[in-house]
């Protein structure tokens, strides 16, 4: 009997592909350290020419690729043009090196610097390696190492893909990507997500795969099955069909396998995409980001202006819950009419409800507009305050909303203090909605806008999940709804964990609804609780994700994992 082996990495998205392996060609060898025979001036001219030509070539690829790829390639072109790097190359040539050797050493030095910084910067090291290879290929007059171009479809295996390669992948031929290096924030992952390429990154043992090996690449589990049996191939076809069906079938309400309803709601920032949200089966709106309506306004919006917009919103969801968030101004979403003083640390400043309180008439106008629009439609209109950090703030907001005629008022839990006192905050509020984006930022002390700390911004972190669990417990004890409206709710497996921690509804970008709906339907309440316990007892986000993934993945009796 044939036995397959499996390799495990981090899956990006939920795609699945089957096909033969083709490996990226090996990189250029390290250039020799023999002294130059051409003289320093000639070597410097060669090096400068190769750096400039490489920058131009990468920039051209970017223009052809467009989108996020263009930004990434532009950044790579800048690396080739970096004046400090060029000075470093020239210094090395002055000490007798060839242009090839000087370029090699200068890039290695920069690379080591990035790697020592770790996280997001560390993941940029591959970009530098790629530029180095391209400059040296130019110097030697050979083709730059790149993606193979056979006349059949294949699964590409590489250490990590450089942006220049990923940007121009022929998506008709490349069925999937497997990399041995790189994490969830590497460019391979970012671009695979944007282009919906099936990808498993950071795959242990990937470089042992050989050209022609057949693999099943399952991004939803991060598992690569090598030399699959007939039964495994058949199972992958069935899985592919059921996933395709999950995203195309007319949609129903969100529910667990045991029938427990978990309403699936939409996150919206304008009234333009209402039809799309309804078509994708949103059972209401869990977060309407009102500040997005007024980002360009110099002056506070009037009651009439807001009322018209909220009426259009509510009218699209007759009889359904629609949660309007009061203006969340500050830090990543500044509004000139609410944030008047510059601050050193705007994320820790007068933002969210704090800024609204400092301009109470603006808050009063907004709540009045919501109450008026609610009265004109049949939607179940709720309001919530952003960035609440004390019990007193919750009390203040809820009583003001009721005074102005909004029937249901609650708070967002985005600050650890609010999660830790969730029982007392919920006693003052009709509901809580957890903003995992900010809750992660504040729990891990990692600016959500800063790439260099992006690896800390992971809502799978057990500290974040423990806080979510506190809110879930408080909600259950008081019989009050606890929603999730941060990005975490759009990660299908994490959504299951969040339900196990006590979330009673999930709100997300409409594009994520189908996958989350399909994933919830696979598990019972007891299983969600079991997964939540597993995630909570992990030491890190990576461990939590791996533990839950393994528990949630059906095991095939013939599979065993390759150990290295
Ligand atoms: C959040 O912080 O998770 C959230 C939903 O709010 P925003 O992303 O708009 O800050
Ligand atoms: Mg927030």
Quick recap:
It is built from 22 helices and 17 strands. By secondary structure, the chain is α/β, with parallel strands linked by helices.
Describe this structure in words.
With 564 residues, the protein is an alpha/beta fold. It has three domains: 5-25 and 146-246, Phosphohistidine domain (Glucose Oxidase, domain 1, 3-Layer(bba) Sandwich), CATH 3.50.30; 40-140, PtsI, HPr-binding domain (Enzyme I, Chain A, domain 2, Orthogonal Bundle), CATH 1.10.274; 264-552, Alpha-Beta Barrel (TIM Barrel), CATH 3.20.20.60. It contains 22 helices and 17 strands. The strands form two sheets. Strands 2-6-5-4-3-7-8-1-17 form a nine-stranded mixed beta sheet. An eight-stranded parallel barrel has the order 9-10-11-12-13-14-15-16, surrounded by seven helices. Helix 8 (187-195) links the parallel strand 5 (174-179) and strand 6 (198-201). Helix 1 crosses helix 6. It starts with a strand and ends with a strand. Phosphoenolpyruvate is lined by residues 287, 289, 328, 414, 435-438, 485-486.
Bound molecules: phosphoenolpyruvate, magnesium ion
Annotated CATH topology of the largest domain: TIM Barrel
Reading off the top of the CATH hierarchy, the class of the largest domain is best stated as: Alpha Beta
Report the total helices: 22
| Overall number of domains | 3
- Beta-strand percent range: 5-15%
Biggest sheet, open or closed, and with what strands and sense? 9 strands, mixed
Q: Find the CATH superfamily of the largest domain.
A: Phosphoenolpyruvate-binding domains
Q: Within the largest sheet, what's the order of strands?
A: 2-6-5-4-3-7-8-1-17
Shape: globular
Mean pLDDT: 89
Helix content: 40-55%
| Global Rg | 27 Å
Structural class: alpha/beta
């Amino acid at each position: 009997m044939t036995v397959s082996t499996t390799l495990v990495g981090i899956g990006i998205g939920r795609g699945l592909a089957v096909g033969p392996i083709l490996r990226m060609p090996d990189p250029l060898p390290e250039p020799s350290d023999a002294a130059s025979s051409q003289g320093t001036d000639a070597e410097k001219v060669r090096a400068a020419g190769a750096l400039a030509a490489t920058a131009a070539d990468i920039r051209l690829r970017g223009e052809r690729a467009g989108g996020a790829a263009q930004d990434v390639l532009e950044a790579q072109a800048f690396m080739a043009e970096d004046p400090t790097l060029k000075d470093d190359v020239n210094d090395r040539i002055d000490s007798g090196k060839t242009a090839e050797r000087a370029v090699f050493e200068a890039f290695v030095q920069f690379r080591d610097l990035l790697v020592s910084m770790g996280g997001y910067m560390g993941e940029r090291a591959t970009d530098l390696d790629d530029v180095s290879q391209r400059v040296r290929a130019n110097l030697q007059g050979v083709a730059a190492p790149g993606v193979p171009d056979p006349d059949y479809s294949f699964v590409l295996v590489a250490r990590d893909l450089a942006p220049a390669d990923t940007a121009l992948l022929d998506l008709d031929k490349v069925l999937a990507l497997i990399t041995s290096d790189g994490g969830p924030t590497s460019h391979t992952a970012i671009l695979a997500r944007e282009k919906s390429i099936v990808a498993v990154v950071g795959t242990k043992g990937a470089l042992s795969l050989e050209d022609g090996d057949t693999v099943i690449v399952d991004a939803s589990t991060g598992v690569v099955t090598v030399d699959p049996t007939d039964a495994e191939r058949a199972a992958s076809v069935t899985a592919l069909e059921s996933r395709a069906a999950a995203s195309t079938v007319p949609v129903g309400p969100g529910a667990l396998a045991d029938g427990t309803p978990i309403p699936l709601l939409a996150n919206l920032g304008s009234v333009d995409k209402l039809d799309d949200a309804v078509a994708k089966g949103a059972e209401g709106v869990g977060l309407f980001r009102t500040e997005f309506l007024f980002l360009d306004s110099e002056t506070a919006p009037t009651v009439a202006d807001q009322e018209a917009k909220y009426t259009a919103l509510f009218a699209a969801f007759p009889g359904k819950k629609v949660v309007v968030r009061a203006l969340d101004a500050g830090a990543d979403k500044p509004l000139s009419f609410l944030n008047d003083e510059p601050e050193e640390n705007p994320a820790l400043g007068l933002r969210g409800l704090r800024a609204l309180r400092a301009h109470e008439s603006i808050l009063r106008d907004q709540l009045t507009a919501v109450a008026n629009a609610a009265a004109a439609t049949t939607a179940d209109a709720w309001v919530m305050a952003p960035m609440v950090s004390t019990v007193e703030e919750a009390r203040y907001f809820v009583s003001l909303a009721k005074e102005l005629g909004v029937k249901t008022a609650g708070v967002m839990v985005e600050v650890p203090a609010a999660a830790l006192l969730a029982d007392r905050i919920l006693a003052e509020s009709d509901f809580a909605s957890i903003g995992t984006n900010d809750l992660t930022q504040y729990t891990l002390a990692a600016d959500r806008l800063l790439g260099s700390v992006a690896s800390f911004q992971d809502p799978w972190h057990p500290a974040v999940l423990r806080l979510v669990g506190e809110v879930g417990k408080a909600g259950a004890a008081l019989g009050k709804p606890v929603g999730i409206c941060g990005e975490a709710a759009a990660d299908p497996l994490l959504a299951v964990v969040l339900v196990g921690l006590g979330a009673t509804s999930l709100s997300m970008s409409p594009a994520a609804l189908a996958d989350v709906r399909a994933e919830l339907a696979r598990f019972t309440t007891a299983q969600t609780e079991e997964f939540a316990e597993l995630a909570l007892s992990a030491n890190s986000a990576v461990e939590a994700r791996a533990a839950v993934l393994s528990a949630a993945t059906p095991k095939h009796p013939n599979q065993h994992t390759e150990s290295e």
